[in-house]
Amino acid sequence: MKLSYHKGTILIKGEYSIPNAKWDGRVGCYRSQALFYRDITEYLKNSGIQYEDHVLDLIPCPDLSCDIKLRDYQKEAMNKWLRQKRGVMVMPTGSGKTVLAIKIIESVNSPTFIVVPTLDLVQQWKENLQTFGIKIGEYTGLKKDLQPITVSTYDSAYINAENLGNKFKLLIFDEVHHLPAEGYRQIAEMFASPYRLGLTATYERE
C-alpha cells in the first residue's frame, strides 16, 4: 500500500478498499479527499496493513518556545483539544483565542498554517506570533512567503489549497464560522493536515 498527495487528494495504490476512498479509473487507484488522511492512516495502522506514506512534505520547523502564560480556563480548553488534536474553540471576544492558539502551536511544535478572513488580521496574527522569535510567513495576494508558521487569508488559501495542502501539520481557522461558505470549505477538504483547530466567538452560521 502506498499513499501520496496529488492536488488536494490522497492517491492510494494497493490491493485494499479503504474507507472514504473511491476508485478512480483515470489514475488506476483509489482516491480520497486529503481531509481524510489522518483517518486513512489510523485505519491502516489499526488493521495491521503495511503502507508507505509519501503524503506530507512538511516545511522544516525549529523548536518553538514562547513565554506566554495561560489562564486556567485557557489551559482547560487547550488540554481538551490536545487529547484529539482536532476541534473548535468557541470563546467570547476578548477571551484570548489567539493566545490559546499560540500555546497550542508551541505544544504541537509542527509547521502551522493559519487562515484568517482579512489582511488586517493577517498582520495582527503575524505581530502576535513574533513571540516565537522566528520569521512568520505570509501567503496572501500581496506576498507569497512560506515559513514554518504561515498566515493566509481565506481567499488565498482557497485559491492555492491544492499546492499547499501537504506542507503543514497543524491547520488553524480563525473565525471558523466562515469555513462552511461554498469554496472556503475546500480549504479543509484539500489540506491533509492531521491536526486542526477552529476558533470563533460565533459558531452558528446561517
Protein traits:
single chain; 206 residues; alpha/beta; 7-stranded mixed β-sheet; 5-stranded mixed β-sheet; 12 strands
In short:
With 206 residues, this protein is α/β, with parallel strands linked by helices.
Strand order in the sheet with the most strands:
6-12-11-7-10-8-9
Q: Strand portion, in percent? A: 25-35%
DSSP strand tally: 12
Average residue-wise pLDDT: 95
Contiguous low-pLDDT stretches (5 residues minimum) are none
Our measurement of the CA-to-CA distance between the termini, rounded to an integer number of angstroms, reads 42 Å
Proportion in helices: 25-40%
Largest sheet: 7 strands, mixed
* Net shape: globular
Order of helices and strands: EEEEHEHEHEHEEEHEHE
Structural class: alpha/beta
User: Total number of helical segments?
Assistant: 6
Radius of gyration: 17 Å
What does this structure look like?
- This protein has helices at about 35-45, 70-85, 95-110, 120-130, 155-165, 185-190; strands at about 1-5, 10-15, 20-25, 30-35, 50-55, 85-90, 110-115, 135-140, 145, 150-155, 170-175, 195-200.
- By secondary structure, the chain is of the alpha/beta class.
- Strands 6-12-11-7-10-8-9 form a seven-stranded mixed β-sheet.
- The longest helix is centred in the middle third of the chain and has 13 residues, at about 70-85.
- The mean pLDDT is about 95.
Secondary structure topology:
Elements (H helix, E strand, L loop, with lengths): L1 E5 L2 E5 L8 E3 L4 E5 L3 H10 L5 E3 L17 H13 L1 E5 L6 H12 L3 E5 L2 H11 L7 E3 L4 E2 L3 E5 H11 L5 E5 L10 H6 L4 E6 L6
Helix pairs in contact: 2-3
